[in-house]
């Protein structure tokens, strides 16, 4: 087992062989990956050393102290948080070798082609079709066995599709079986001519998301992840990792949305009212308690006793972000009537706190929708944590093609 | 904050929990607690003896060289979670925490050891609603004797010794048998209140009242959150259990989404309360960030415990309104706890000073 001392030794070796000050950023990151210090809990040869996940902090601290460049994880959150663990679990050896290194170093950014206009919370109802082309040589240069898959459909809410090289994609490969059974999971090349990415301008004025139209997109079978018809099970890995990523942050006191509004309160006594004071204090307490809950969850994970609390963290932060940013708009009074900038932009990453209060208020409305609506998450808590009876299901044994749409 | 608080439970703490839960299962079942509330002996002194004498839990906060167990607020918090879960009518919070902390501020060996051993029960003669730092009533110290009346003193009926603040700034130990202790009719039947009258009673000077009372109430407020956590957990667990069994419209009632969401919401609050309560217990144990941790816990805990008990009543519907079902014990305790050692509003106001979010 690789322990902390061993990781420190290997980190020192990496720094000695590739001094950050005189090494190209990307070269350093590649060397770090090859040294197994990228995500230490991954297998050897795939950026890790089979070490306990909790020891990553040891490596990160040493590298940060040495001024080493990082891989800018916020730019490739979907790649690192969702695509990578899914490829690791279900990918072939060739797939792991091909995709994980450029993903981790950030050369290749990933997005997620899951949601559709008709399949949001009911994700398994998705209608994008992937049809196997029988016979004849594959037209794709990468295809070795069997025919390509030909994909047609529309996806939506695709964060960062405009910056992405690859996408994880789920599509329907068998409409004649119940909806969860007929789905297959693919890796989609976003540079394929059949992929049309269109900005989806949202409530804030920005277009951080996209609509993605897929027209006769050819995917070689070698880019299928998991078995045919097993896509729903594979997607669960992706989605479970999505929720962990949302709940696993470590924040200092006032590290979240409560920070900016507390600062304004302290610096602008003329804005204070009794009503706002009462609401601010309540939200300050709620924020501090949510922070402690996240910290407790983190300590449980480090101690190897993961609890179900993660399912609740997203609910809590969504509500808090919305209430706090709403309060902040009111606190600003006349300034609350203004907005910083409605220009349509296509940001590389989502910034919840960097812009003004009005932006925070509008963007946070998405926090109770994206990554699973609060209503769906409450059902999950009630059924999986508390063991209450599931919702009655009318679609369980019905073929997807016979479902009402 | 220089270090991160430890928000988990240690194996030793879990062992304490298991032992206390076993003991309470034998001593403190709900029908027994309900029957006791209507008797002349509202306190369960057999359970107290088993906890204090048998298991040595009354002395957890007292160093070993002063006759205690030399443990910390973290273990006490676990005991209180279990006592809250059972709404146990024992003077643990008042004697083993509040009175004990007052004595720890005064350096009085013999009395502290007696409380730690559980042989005697102590009560701080400050009204239960007073918050740390809040104003409290005092008695007159005149001619070497104490004169006056103090009200809403929790567990005074069970106490052998009363710790009484006087107008000369001193905290005095008074033999409870020398005082007149008159039971009041409490809202929470499981934590009885009484009036204490002193009519020229001699007292032994222990130390400075202000320091001792503040320390005692701060520990009481911080650890009360763990009692509130245990209480809220019991009401949530019981309600979930009941709603899985109870059928209406040919379905378990717990399958209706409107109710599922309410219970999930409650679960979330309980999870949050656990983190806040653990943080307060750890802060009291380490002395790091204690004032903020206690104020945060008490600003948060009351609404969760009351909400959990109120939801339990509503979701049990008719049966929840009856005297025979124990929910009313929990609702009464939760509501009284929301006042004990300061309301959430008082703690929020304190927090405003501590974290520099001043009022207009």
TrEMBL record, chain A:
Acyl-CoA oxidase/dehydrogenase middle domain location: 111-217
Record's keyword terms, sorted: FAD, Flavoprotein, Oxidoreductase
Keyword Oxidoreductase carried by entry: yes
Domain Acyl-CoA dehydrogenase/oxidase N-terminal: 27-107
GO molecular function: flavin adenine dinucleotide binding; oxidoreductase activity, acting on the CH-CH group of donors
Cofactor entry: FAD
Family: Belongs to the acyl-CoA dehydrogenase family.
Protein's UniProt name: Pimeloyl-CoA dehydrogenase, large subunit
Organism per entry: Streptomyces sviceus (strain ATCC 29083 / DSM 924 / JCM 4929 / NBRC 13980 / NCIMB 11184 / NRRL 5439 / UC 5370)
UniProtKB/TrEMBL annotation, chain B:
Cofactor: FAD
The protein's name in its UniProt record: Pimeloyl-CoA dehydrogenase, small subunit
InterPro entries per the UniProt record, alphabetical: AcylCo_DH-like_C, AcylCo_DH/oxidase_C, AcylCoA_DH/ox_N, AcylCoA_DH/ox_N_sf, AcylCoA_DH/oxidase_NM_dom_sf
SUPFAM superfamilies assigned to the protein according to its UniProt record, in alphabetical order: Acyl-CoA dehydrogenase C-terminal domain-like, Acyl-CoA dehydrogenase NM domain-like
Pfam families given in the database record: Acyl-CoA_dh_1, Acyl-CoA_dh_N
Oxidoreductase listed as a keyword: yes
Single GO term (MF): acyl-CoA dehydrogenase activity
Chain ranges of the Acyl-CoA dehydrogenase/oxidase C-terminal domain: 215-353
UniProt record similarity statement: Belongs to the acyl-CoA dehydrogenase family.
Organism (species): Streptomyces sviceus (strain ATCC 29083 / DSM 924 / JCM 4929 / NBRC 13980 / NCIMB 11184 / NRRL 5439 / UC 5370)
Residue ranges crossing the lipid bilayer per the database entry: none
Keywords for this protein: FAD, Flavoprotein, Oxidoreductase
Acyl-CoA dehydrogenase/oxidase N-terminal domain span: 10-96
């Amino acid at each position: 087992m690789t322990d902390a001392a061993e990781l420190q030794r290997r980190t020192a070796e990496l720094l000695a062989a590739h001094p950050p000050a005189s090494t190209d950023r990307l070269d350093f990151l590649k060397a770090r990956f090859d040294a197994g210090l990228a995500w230490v809990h991954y297998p050897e040869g795939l950026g890790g050393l089979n070490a306990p996940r909790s020891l990553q902090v040891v490596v990160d601290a040493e590298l940060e102290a040495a001024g080493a460049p990082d891989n800018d994880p916020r730019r490739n959150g979907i790649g690192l948080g969702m695509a990578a663990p899914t490829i690791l679990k279900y990918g072939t050896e060739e797939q792991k070798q091909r995709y994980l290194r450029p993903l981790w170093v950030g050369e290749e950014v990933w997005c997620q082609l899951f949601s559709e206009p008709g399949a949001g919370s009911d994700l398994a109802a998705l209608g994008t079709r992937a049809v196997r082309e029988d016979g004849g040589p594959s037209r794709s240069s990468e295809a070795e066995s069997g025919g390509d898959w030909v994909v047609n459909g529309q996806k939506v809410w695709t964060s960062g599709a405009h910056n992405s090289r690859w996408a994880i994609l789920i599509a329907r490969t068998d409409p004649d079986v119940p909806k969860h059974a007929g789905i297959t999971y693919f890796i989609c090349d976003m540079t394929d001519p059949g992929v049309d990415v269109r900005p989806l301008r949202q409530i804030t004025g920005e277009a951080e998301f996209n609509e993605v139209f897929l027209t006769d997109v050819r995917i070689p079978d070698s880019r299928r992840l998991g078995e045919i018809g097993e896509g729903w099970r594979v997607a669960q890995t992706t989605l479970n990792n999505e929720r962990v990523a949302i709940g696993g942050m470590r924040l200092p006191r006032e590290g979240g949305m409560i920070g900016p509004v507390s600062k304004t309160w302290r610096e602008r006594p003329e804005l204070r009212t009794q009503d706002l004071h009462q609401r601010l204090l309540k939200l300050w307490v709620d924020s501090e308690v949510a922070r402690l809950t996240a910290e407790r969850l983190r300590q449980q994970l480090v101690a190897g006793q993961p609890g179900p609390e993660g399912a609740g963290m997203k609910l809590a932060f969504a509500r808090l972000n919305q209430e706090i940013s709403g309060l902040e708009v009111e606190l600003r009074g006349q300034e609350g009537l203004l907005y910083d900038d409605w220009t349509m932009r296509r940001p590389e990453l989502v910034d919840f706190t960097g812009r003004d209060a009005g932006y925070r208020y509008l963007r946070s409305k998405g926090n109770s929708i994206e990554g699973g609506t609060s209503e769906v998450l409450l059902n999950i808590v009630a059924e999986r944590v508390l063991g209450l009876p599931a919702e009655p299901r009318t679609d369980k044994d019905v073929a997807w093609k016979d479902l009402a749409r | 904050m220089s270090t991160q608080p430890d928000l988990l439970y240690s194996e030793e703490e879990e062992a304490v929990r298991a032992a206390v839960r076993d003991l309470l299962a034998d001593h403190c079942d709900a029908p027994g607690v309900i029957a006791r509330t209507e008797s002349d002996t509202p306190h369960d002194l057999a359970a107290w003896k088993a906890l204090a004498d048998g298991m040595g839990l009354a002395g957890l906060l007292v160093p070993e060289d002063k006759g205690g167990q030399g443990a910390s607020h973290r273990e006490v918090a676990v005991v209180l979670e279990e006592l809250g879960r059972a709404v146990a009518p024992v003077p643990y919070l008042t004697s083993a925490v509040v009175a004990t902390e007052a004595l720890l501020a005064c350096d009085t060996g013999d009395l502290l050891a007696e409380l730690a051993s559980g042989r005697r029960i102590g009560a701080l003669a400050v009204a239960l609603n007073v918050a740390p730092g809040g104003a409290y009533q005092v008695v007159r110290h005149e001619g070497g004797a104490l004169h006056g009346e103090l009200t809403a003193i929790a567990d005074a009926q069970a106490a052998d010794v009363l710790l009484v603040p006087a107008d000369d700034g001193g905290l005095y130990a008074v033999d409870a048998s020398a005082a007149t202790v008159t039971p009041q009719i409490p809202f929470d039947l499981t934590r009885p209140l009484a009036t204490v009258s002193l009519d020229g009673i001699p007292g032994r000077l222990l130390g400075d009242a202000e320091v001792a009372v503040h320390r005692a109430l701060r520990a009481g407020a911080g650890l009360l959150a763990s009692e509130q956590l245990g209480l809220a957990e019991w009401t949530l667990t019981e309600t979930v259990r009941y709603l899985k069994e109870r059928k209406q419209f040919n379905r378990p009632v717990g399958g209706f989404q409107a109710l599922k969401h309410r219970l999930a919401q409650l679960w979330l609050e309980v999870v949050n309360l656990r983190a806040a309560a653990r943080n307060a217990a750890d802060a009291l144990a380490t002395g790091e960030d204690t004032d903020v941790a206690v104020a945060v816990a008490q600003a948060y805990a009351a609404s969760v415990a009351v909400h959990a008990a109120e939801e339990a009543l509503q979701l049990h519907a008719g049966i929840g309104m009856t005297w025979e079902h124990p929910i009313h014990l929990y609702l009464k305790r939760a509501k009284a706890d929301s006042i004990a050692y300061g309301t959430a509003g008082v703690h929020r106001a304190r927090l405003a000073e501590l974290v520099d979010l001043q009022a207009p």
